[in-house]
Automatic annotation (TrEMBL):
Protein name, per record: GNAT family N-acetyltransferase
Coiled coil feature spans: none
Organism taxonomic ancestry: Bacteria, Bacillati, Actinomycetota, Actinomycetes, Micrococcales
InterPro entries documented for this protein: Acyl_CoA_acyltransferase, GNAT_N_AcTrfase_prd
Amino acid sequence: MSDPFTVQATEDAEAAARAADVTVREVSDLPGLAAVGDLFTTIWGKPSVSTELLRAFSKTQSYVGGAFRDGVLVGACVAFHAAPAQRSLHSHIAGVTPGTGGRGVGFALKVHQRAWALALGVDEIAWTYDPLVARNAHFNINKLAGRPAEYLPNFYGPMSDAINGDEDTDRVLVRWDLRSPAVAAACRSGRPGRSGRSGAPDAVVPVPLDIERLRAADPAAAHEWRLRVRESLGPYLAGGSAVGYDRAHGYLIHTPARTVPHTPTEGDRP
């Protein structure tokens, strides 16, 4: 008999797909897998994941999910299993067709991925994101109730694609406890939740409003933001601080008792 928690997660995934006007399902056929790879190439401006690798992921029961609208692929997400003892999935890449952002497609994919993982007995999904991209911070921390856990400087090395440019690829590792009340509530309601503590923060780490536009207009200023956030947010995460996010201010830091890491420089956004 199915776990009631997993049954609810499946219902939440179906509801999120309906709200986004998509059908979300696993992709395992070769044409579908090729379409997933082509979608990522369109988004990042260069090949990211080969059809052969996606085929191997699908065959070994890793996650290759696609969101379809009127039979056309408009979003995809790929994840693979971490070490067996961790009961964790690492979500490596996800994206939606340009022009569909903000319509709930990405949310529908993640909620489907959660239901799929729970059905396999996986308790956690982890992934990385660029901490300078404000909309991704909001999506991961508020919309999904993910927990920032680790700062990874220049994690992928040079990527030189349409999104990352030639910048260092710093990432924040997010952990998604699939059975936590905050995650369950976020997936059920589709409304922003909170993964961190409530109350006034001990510190704030601002980020630019639109780092992608800034990279194009002023790469030097974008790099200064990279260093500033690395030097401030990194030590807070290493010290075990709980990190929330506010669109108007940036990262909200709640430090452990009697532990105050490096204080970031407060300043106006460029």
